[in-house]
Amino acid sequence: MATVTTTLYDKIGGAAAVEAVVKEFYVRVLADKQLKNFFDSTNMDAQTKSQIDFITMALGGPNNYNGKPMKEAHEGMGITEMHFDKVATHLVETLAWGGVSQEDIDTIVGVVGPLKAQIVEA
Ligand code: HEM
Prior knowledge:
The chain starts with 7 loop residues before the first helix and ends with a helix. Helices cover 60% and strands 0% of the residues. The chain has a single domain, classed as Orthogonal Bundle (Globin-like). The relative contact order is 0.17. The longest helix is centred in the first third of the chain and has 17 residues, at 14-30. By secondary structure, it is mainly α. Bound molecules: protoporphyrin IX containing FE. Protoporphyrin IX containing FE binds at residues 35, 38-39, 42, 47, 50-51, 54, 67-68, 73-74, 77, 79, 83-84, 87-88, 112, 115, 119.
């Protein structure tokens, strides 16, 4: 019998789902007074593309990510645990908005949560 492996990326709806979620995620992050200043000098089109590639890779989709590793990408920004947790909450809420099941959201949190150690520095 053939073995069929479904990645989390496929399960949540592939490219269209990831693109929709990441776009909405940045709408929410930029509407958050405690987060928006971090992105004052950021090209949000490039950021959105890079984040789509990163999340796609993290969820087991095609690996087209050519941005920096997480530690390097966030170095010197003074990101605290509070900032990280707020960003993670926006991601969770946006995944729910996108119709992703609670079970899959929990799995995604398990993938993204451990990145905290590389991103938080203050
Ligand atoms: C789940 C946690 C996070 C993930 C997966 C993530 C992912 C990324 C990725 C993929 C990039 C692009 C790197 C590149 O293209 O080289 C990036 C850059 C960035 N991230 Fe994050 N990030 C996270 C948390 C945060 C938090 C908590 C903040 C601040 C509150 C933040 C602020 C930024 C900023 C300001 C940039 C740089 C944009 C620029 O180049 O101007 N990120 N992040």
